[in-house]
Please model this.
Amino acid sequence: MTEIHMHDPPLTFRPATPEDEPFVTRLVPRFVEFGLPSGHDPARLQVSFHRTLNGALHRLPAGHAFYVAEQAGVSVGFILLEVRDDPLTGARHGHVSDLAVTPEADGRGVARALMIRAERWAYESSLPYLTLSVFATNARARALYAKLGYAEDLLRLHKTVAPDVASTF
Model:
């Protein structure tokens, strides 16, 4: 793994704009390329990710943030951050909705830097903690989040319902 070093151009962050749509759209397939748990259709998920990201680019809700990471003027990743209410406690908190980096930025510390930017946003927004969701099959992302101190607190389980389920009772 090659991290960003002192001799690399500095990594900067800027708010995403509608003009970033081609860049963001180009990274949507990255959300499914690691393999998905059974029962998930990659094409449908890509449509859903694109709809969410495109909507945020054009109509970002108040309090949310959408950042693009750049290095030497080239976009290398993005992160979409939301303000949510915790379903268990009602506490308002930050949520990492989506994060992606270019294949060229893989292993260079860009995702880590975006996550640190997310923590700064949460702190500056007076949000006490961040949550995120990650597919169980995305081992690389899960390892990064664990290194950054994120821990599981609620697991979502998934089962595709068989067509004959009504006849089993």
